[in-house]
Amino acid sequence: MARLGVLFAPVCFTARSYTRPGFSYSPATVINLSAFVDNLFFRPRYQHYYFGDYYASNYHDGGYYPAYSDNSSRYGYDPIYAHER
User: Fold this and answer.
1) What is the chain's mean pLDDT, rounded?
2) φ/ψ of residue 17, rounded to 5
3) Are 84 and 37 in contact (CB under 8 A)?
């Protein structure tokens, strides 16, 4: 993952912000890629990854699984986890 580049934290703007003439944005908050891999979750039903704190049982019940559980369980194959390990 480290060779892929720099991962900046997502941001959310209101439409009024970015539609103003002359609007510009420079990202400043970087996500540590080792923390990224350790806190990566996936949802097989939607075929998406999620980054963050999805450790609560209600997320597990909703189909969010830690990426590290992927290769040792019935949830499926995770290519990012397999590559990192």
Assistant:
1) 80
2) -70, -55
3) yes
pLDDT of residue 26: 92
CA distance 61 to 55: 11
Provide the 10 A C-beta neighbour count for residue 66. 19
**Above 60 in pLDDT, residue 57?**
yes
What whole-number distance in Å separates Cα of residue 15 and Cα of residue 80? 34
- Report the residue count for the chain: 85
Q: How far apart are CA 76 and CA 44, in angstroms?
A: 7
Question: What is d(CA 84, CA 14) in angstroms, rounded to the nearest whole number?
Answer: 36
With a CB cutoff of 8 Å and minimum separation 6, the contacts of 39 are: 51, 52, 53
* pLDDT over 70 at 19, yes or no: yes
